[in-house]
Amino acid sequence: MKSHHKKEKRRSSLLLVVFIVILMIGSTIGFVFSGLQNDNSQSSDITYDGYAFIQTESGWTFLYNNKVIYVDYLPDEVKDIPLENFPLGNSKVYLAFKPSEKNNNIDYSLRKVYSVLRGNGFNAFLACNDEIDCPDIPVVDCEDSLFPIILFEKSDLLKTSINGKCLVLEGDAIGLSKASDRFIYSVLGVI
Questions:
Q1: Residue 47 — φ and ψ, nearest 5°?
Q2: Shortest CA distance to 77 belongs to which of 187, 189, 185?
Q3: CB neighbours of 110 closer than 8 A, spacing ≥ 6?
């Protein structure tokens, strides 16, 4: 009688172990496949002029010379923003702002352009275009600068223009981000 009871107990234990193993394997397989489905449903691939854009939680990415570039808007969304030819050359490029206007939106757009320029071989440096409240960085002037300047300005209108040695990118939070992306695409030759 004891051996029959032992066999039943062993059998029950073995069945429980097999059930747990099957459950664990099934859960793992389900997790892997659901992760793949989520990745495919979240990433919308869009191609523009040979560049593949992948949507992320915070915008879009694409590869340029084996480097990941982050943008907020696709080329189709910003290609109609007028942008005059503004040669940067191979030396310094200043990214300037008015200290009295600096806010998170200007800072974000400035950093986005700075990152792309520095990551692609340009000597980009931060600067102010007004001495008042300027931190310990150069102060540059659109008329007297020896080097090109990208000037970020707060405005109700989305606008790009050239003023002396400055390419002026203007806009509110959305407009400035769009103008910055338009500039990035232009510098990289996407648009």
A1: -110, 135
A2: 185
A3: 95, 97, 126, 152, 180
| Cα Rg, the chain, nearest whole Å | 27
- b/e 31-40 (16+ beta carbons within 10 angstroms → b): eeeeeeeeee
Asked if 116 and 69 touch (Cβ cutoff 8 Å), the reply is yes
Portion of the chain with pLDDT greater than 90, in percent: 69
82-188: what fold? Rossmann fold (3.40.50)
Between 35 and 101, the higher pLDDT residue? 101
Neighbours of 123 (CB within 10 A): 14
pLDDT over 60 (residue 12):
no
Q: Which of 57, 95, 96, 54 is nearest to 74 (CA)?
A: 54
Token reading at 99: 């200290």
Alpha helices in the chain, H assignment, sequence order = 2-42, 75-78, 104-119, 173-188
Q: Is residue 160 over pLDDT 50?
A: yes
